[in-house]
Amino acid sequence: MSAVPLQALPLDELRQRSSTKWRKYSDDVLPFFVAEMDYALAPAITRSLLRAVELGDTGYTPPEPGVREAFVGFAARRFGWEVDPQSVFWTGDVMMGVVEILRVVTEPGDRVVVTTPVYPPFFDTVEEAGAVVERVPLARTGTGWELDLVGIEAALEGGARAVLLCNPHNPTGTVHSRASLEALAELAAAFGAVVVSDEIHGPLAHGTRYTPFLAASESAARVGYAVTSASKTFNLAGLKCAVMIGGGPQQAQLLRALPCEVEWRTGLFGAMANVAAFSAESDAWLDSLLAALDQNRRLLADLLAEHLPRAEYRLPDAGFLAWVDVSAYGWGDNPATVLRRRARVAFHHGPLFGEEGKGFVRINFACSPDVLREGIERVAALVES
Ligand SMILES: Cc1ncc(COP(=O)(O)O)c(C=O)c1O
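# pyridoxal-5'-phosphate complex -> structure
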């Protein structure tokens, strides 16, 4: 039986939240920018956090907070991925995990391949690690995007030491095929490079089979690290907990040897919430979330076809972010700025994701269908005026 779609909370309730999504702009702007969702928490998470608050359980994260076991169980249930518990470690957030791994696997000035357009902090994170970004844009296919394996091979041949992968990809929502991940792993193995795979959107695949990079092949496990969290899927970004997984014993050893501060940065509430999110108790909530997101990604296609027919949008394979080319409307390189000022909707700025994002906006559709409709209608009204 298919799950009943989760209902988003009403706007007046959401506006009482104090997170970036609700506080960055004034109340007359509808927010679709940052990747926060408009649903109530999964009940198991609420229970866990309420109990902690009642107990005043707000101290430091213990040595074994249960994240390891919870993630191993989740990976097996949701992805059929058998993870060695001894290869799982934790830290404050996904980008902290990425930067600490890159710091160790690269030397200052080494080049790291980044497949643009991509989640903007990838650029700064590579630099924070002392490395240099080498852009290899995603290739356009007739129906979406894919890794440019020829371009990545050229970059590795030219000396790039690592690939910072986004699987599934933000902002295009691409779930990379197993074949492309296998090929990437072979390239990395051939050139002695490392793949660090950000898999935060993995649990949000819509139908398309998501392959965790480390599970793609034996080579992938030998060259790779994955960093993920329940934070995107369960809206826990403020709580600070992410999971790092080493593909093989050597990678696990490198993670074990990271400075103890890396683990120490894990928030106790973050650990508790990740444990509850990854538990089987939260599976039904996640299925309902996926049903709601699937509806909305299709609703957005209908709304754009009706009101903004010159916009180009491909249904994302995963997640709740839509990458929409609105360049045909003449709002310049950064349409989000124009649309916020003139239509009172806040989309995310395309050019922040790289050169390829000029003329694009990223739209977060993890909201009620009515809010999504109103957002697109506001833009349509601008076009008509
Ligand atoms: C690909 C990707 N990685 C990382 C993050 C942020 O994760 P964290 O807050 O755990 O660093 C996001 C947030 O949207 C994301 O889309």
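# post-check
The first strand starts at residue 30 and ends at 31.
DSSP finds 15 helices and 15 strands in the chain.
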